[in-house]
Write a structure and sequence with these properties.
By secondary structure, this protein is mostly helical. It is built from four helices and two strands; from the N terminus they run H-H-H-E-E-H. The protein has a two-stranded antiparallel ribbon. Helix 1 runs antiparallel to helix 2. The termini are far apart.
């Protein structure tokens, strides 16, 4: 997409790629922490630190999937330069509301996915 669409698309290809890479990287750090716990390099309580990275992974992946940056949505901004579009601010009140609803949706979906994902990680890491 090359045009901003309220509540639907506020980032282009370059911004999507950044979020995808950050998400995968966050998941990798979470797995590394759990492995360090399983291999007795770190204490079992350290697996709790993986949860923040799991959340970061989910938020990055979901922002890529939805073509929508939650922070940009909350701040009423968009950046489609990586797809041949423009960057700017959102001024229309209804568009700002739509963007903020989508931003909240992404954060809540990330939180739910993190909760579901965290249980097996905590079990494997021996923290539960």
């Amino acid at each position: 997409m090359t045009e901003y669409q309220p509540g639907v698309c506020n980032i282009g290809a370059v911004e999507r790629r950044r979020r995808r890479v950050a998400g995968v990287g966050s998941f990798a750090v979470a797995v590394a922490l759990v492995l360090a716990v399983v291999l007795d390099v770190l204490p079992a309580t350290a697996v709790w630190g993986a949860i923040a990275f799991v959340f970061g992974g989910w938020i990055g992946i979901l922002q890529d999937y939805f073509r929508f940056c939650a922070a940009f949505g909350a701040l009423a901004r968009y950046d489609l330069t990586g797809s041949g579009g423009t960057t700017g601010s959102v001024a229309e009140a209804e568009a700002v509301r739509a963007d903020r609803r989508t931003a909240i949706k992404i954060v809540l979906l990330s939180a739910v996915a993190t909760a579901v994902t965290a249980v097996p990680l905590l079990l494997v890491g021996g923290a539960l």
